[in-house]
From TrEMBL:
Any GO BP: aerobic electron transport chain
Lineage: Bacteria, Bacillati, Bacillota, Bacilli, Bacillales
Short name of one Pfam family: Pyr_redox_2
Name of the protein in question: Type II NADH:quinone oxidoreductase
Transmembrane annotation, as ranges: none
Protein family membership: Belongs to the NADH dehydrogenase family.
Superkingdom, natural source: Bacteria
Keyword Magnesium recorded: no
């Protein structure tokens, strides 16, 4: 019996991969499958809370929990290693801690920051990408306030923060900053009127997926708290002084001692190295979440581009979608183990909320626009639900937002 066990290999313990494993371990017996999970960190982190840790409104420790605390060690072999190569012809994956063979592979390697080759961006701007970047950025912001307070010859740019991109990440980060800045001013005795936060966005409109009412709410909320928007202004370079932007065909230098790039994400670089037809680290999947020519490879989360039947554009990359895909893949693997056909993935859109600090926000939930405390409450429900779905009531109690 045990010799027939299929080798299921899951790469990545983000929302998609970890959800697949936590569901699989409930449904599949140890006799049916040998499940191996590979992840470069020993912990899972709440990627959707990174803007909070980056601004310093939440401690980075609150975003992480050990992967081993949510997996069943009798069923899942956890390998703390980095994936270095996927060899789909040999059905093997190379990692920094050995080579693993598979019968069924789940690729869930997640996102990284994309700077589109903009000169100096990687070197001079902070990214909102992982726990390390969040720690660096929150410390840097505080250091600049402390430095300003302690210096005799004050550098006004210590109190200037540039945020590139007014997508969800940029806006949610700005919302957190407007919570954090008054705290820092109070702590270091800095006049809040001297703080300058500027958001630079290339497109003429921010948050295009939201109604005009919601967009106006966001802009008013942030402007009232001192954020200046430069819309329709592409960033063309970054240097030690800040961003270089283009306005009316003229280049202009915006100065700040903190520049944050929140203007683009892509799937893992490993995707291009491992598969054909990959764009910005994402591969188009079939309806059952496998990929063309490989019924034994599922690709989910931010490295996948799932185009719902009858539509033309792939779904965006969100935690909600990644978790639903993880759960669906677990079902499909169970089907394969039982000799049944796989089923198509159907995304259930439960709505979207964009937070503005911890007490405000906007969203479109159950077909309705919501703003203010209602949106902030919904966001906490969404955040806590994600934790619950990975580790049950115990984890939700420890890490949830209520
Ligand atoms: P994004 O790609 O959605 O937004 C990036 C923004 O940066 C865009 O508005 C773009 O026009 C702008 N930009 C790009 N290049 C620029 C340049 N050179 N100069 C100035 N502006 C430039 O990225 P994101 O906000 O990180 O979101 C990534 C994904 O994650 C999206 O699918 C989003 O829906 C999802 N997300 C969702 C939530 C949520 O549901 N609350 C939160 C964060 C992210």
């Amino acid at each position: 019996m045990a010799q027939n066990r299929k080798k299921v290999l899951v790469l990545g313990a983000g929302y998609a991969g970890l959800q697949a494993v936590t569901k699989l371990q409930k449904e599949v017996s140890a006799n049916e499958a040998e499940i191996t999970l590979v992840n470069k960190n020993k912990y899972h982190y709440e990627a959707t809370w990174l803007h909070e840790a980056s601004a310093g409104t939440l401690n980075y420790e609150d975003l992480i929990y050990p992967i081993e605390s949510v997996i069943d060690k009798n069923k899942v072999n956890f390998i703390n290693a980095e994936v270095t190569k996927i060899d789909r012809n040999a059905k093997k994956v190379e990692t920094t801690h050995g080579i693993f063979e598979y019968d069924i592979l789940v690729v869930a390697l997640g996102f990284e920051s994309e700077t589109f080759g903009i000169n100096g961006m990687k070197e001079h701007a902070f990214q909102i990408e992982n726990i390390h970047t969040a720690r660096e950025l929150s410390r840097h912001i505080e250091d600049k306030f402390a430095n300003y307070a302690a210096s005799k010859e004050k550098d006004e740019n210590d109190l200037a923060i540039l945020v590139g991109g007014a997508g969800f990440t940029g806006i949610e980060f700005l919302g957190e900053l407007t919570d954090r800045i008054p705290e820092l001013c109070n702590k270091y005795g800095v006049d809040q009127n001297k703080v300058k936060i500027t958001c630079v966005e290339a497109m003429p409109k921010i948050l295009p997926m939201f109604s005009e009412n919601l967009v106006n709410y966001v802009v008013n909320y942030l402007e009232e708290r001192g954020v200046e928007f430069k819309i329709g202004t592409p960033i063309v370079a970054c240097n030690e002084k800040g961003f270089k932007v283009k306005t009316n065909d003229q280049e202009q230098q915006l100065e700040a001692n903190t520049a944050v790039w929140a203007a683009g994400v892509r799937g893992s670089q490993l995707m291009e190295e491992s598969f054909e037809g990959v764009k910005r680290g994402r591969i188009v999947t079939k309806q059952d979440l496998t990929i063309d020519g490989h019924d034994d490879i599922f690709v989910i989360g931010d490295v996948s581009a799932f185009i719902p039947a009858g539509e033309e554009r792939p779904l965006p990359t969100t935690a909600q979608i990644a978790m639903q895909q993880g759960a669906h893949v677990a079902k499909n693997i169970e089907n394969i183990l039982n000799g049944q056909a796989t089923t198509d993935f159907e995304y259930i859109d439960r709505g979207t909320v964009c937070s503005l600090g911890s007490h405000d926000g906007v969203g479109h939930v159950f077909g309705r626009d919501i703003t203010g405390k209602k949106a902030a409450f919904m966001k906490k429900v969404i955040d806590t639900r994600a934790v619950f779905k990975m580790g049950g009531v115990g984890l939700a109690f420890k890490k949830g937002k209520f």
